[in-house]
């Protein structure tokens, strides 16, 4: 039985929720004229938008090797009369559009990199591209839809540049390399890449954005549907490495050796209690996975070492730090109890992506209008996204755009990163409308504060 006061609170919260959900969510636009212009200009360049997307799809490039893509982007932005900077974080492009009227600064970001995935034949614009990934020859494909993001942001730049005289503020376009990680060196080396590298090179300065927006296409939603979520939306991702060192010996005389195999096994089981017994799951769903375990050379030798690797996912910075400490403590103490040694290394790759509550609430009706009412509040995503680093610095919102053709079931669609991942071109114009509409609304709303 719930506590009566609690059930009262629960009932009250239901009433509040009820009020919220019955409030007309497609509220009036603050800038109906500008939003209408966005809609008609986006429709006018839809054919060009699709052609760009297909061209970029056919010529995918890996992280920090996006020279052709960056060239296309820079040429387009220069033609629009924007102030363009290239070579940011190696292959990134940044451009600034100054509206004729004074106002705040909005940054919009698209990522440009592809993945080491082989695309099957079929599409007339299917990729046959090859590339170098960590020194290996690989096939390359836009299997995460960053081709769509790049083309959408090119179109948004054209739409907003065409409204320059009426724009109350400044828009910064950020075309980012290496969201999926670098391809020329291993993640976890001393180098940084992608969003982090751009921030280090001052992309969020001069002018400093007041808000940042971006989108990701997803196989989880039907074509043209927009999904969003306030607060933590994407998980942090850390790489876990554990090296267990024992003492090599004859497996017929295990008492003369220190066995890292049994110790590593105990550590794997011990780590299962990090989430189940120690983590505050009210604060953050959490995952600790040991995914590889390697050691030994022969059936009758106790090896010297066993090496393991895995991944850690959380949605909260505090929980993340606690999980790292717990993993260290459990691993080191289990090893010590076996007279072995465990060395734990955690490589922090991506922070949790946390959408700004106030910005999300303000922009939800804008997204709803841009998608003609086809919006949904999504679950958290277990995937990570380095847009999180921009959101650590500047309030903003990162939302999803469905790309699964309407006659197909998203639950059966090939996911992002699959060779069969497929973008329905009809969704692209919705992405353009959404990003451009969010921008003009933010600029106008901030002015009214
Ligand atoms: Zn991806
Ligand atoms: Zn992606």
UniProtKB/TrEMBL annotation:
Record's signal peptide: 1-27
One Pfam family this sequence matches: M20_dimer
Residues that, per the record, bind Mn(2+): 144, 146, 180, 216, 417
Xref: InterPro entries: Amidohydrolase, Bact_exopeptidase_dim_dom, Peptidase_M20, Peptidase_M20_dimer
GO molecular function, one term: metal ion binding
Residue ranges of coiled coil: none
Manner of cofactor binding, per the entry note: The Mn(2+) ion enhances activity.
Domain Peptidase M20 dimerisation, residue spans: 238-336
Biological-process GO terms, alphabetical: diaminopimelate biosynthetic process
Cofactors (names): Mn(2+)
Keyword entries, A-Z: Hydrolase, Manganese, Metal-binding, Signal
Superkingdom in the source lineage: Bacteria
Xref: NCBIfam families: amidohydrolases (TIGR01891)
PANTHER family named in the record: METALLOPEPTIDASE, PUTATIVE (AFU_ORTHOLOGUE AFUA_6G09600)-RELATED, PEPTIDASE M20 FAMILY MEMBER
Protein name stated in the entry: Amidohydrolase
